[in-house]
Amino acid sequence: MLLGWIVLAAVVVVLGFIRLAPSDPLDWNTQPELSEDKEFRGGIFRVVNTGPDGLRRFDRIAGQAPRTQLLAGSVEDQMVTYVTRTKLFGFPDYTTARQDGELLKVYARLRFGRSDLGSNKARIDNWLSQMEMAGDTAAVD
Question: Which Pfam families match (predicted)?
């Protein structure tokens, strides 16, 4: 019985840390220098031809997404980072979008663990498809 309480307390502490751990904007408001789409364990990088105002339109979609908050940057700075938390446990995922001329570069990744179970890919593809449905993007070849 005591072991059960100890395990429960440990789980509560770990989940509390995950939910309350601070996010330093200097650590997360950044992107790798990539010029094409890339998928990796725990994240995704997308390059989309949106025209010069793609970040503004992307920001509008991301800003309305559930459990998503602005962490750093702005449309005026040409780079914005958002934190999206999972519904059940509050695991944070970070999405950094940057306007690079006519291209919108979107980098989404997890903070904790090794796999996001495809959640970053699904979220970013959803946000980009919302832009596409409005006629706002064209894929980069």
Answer: DUF1499
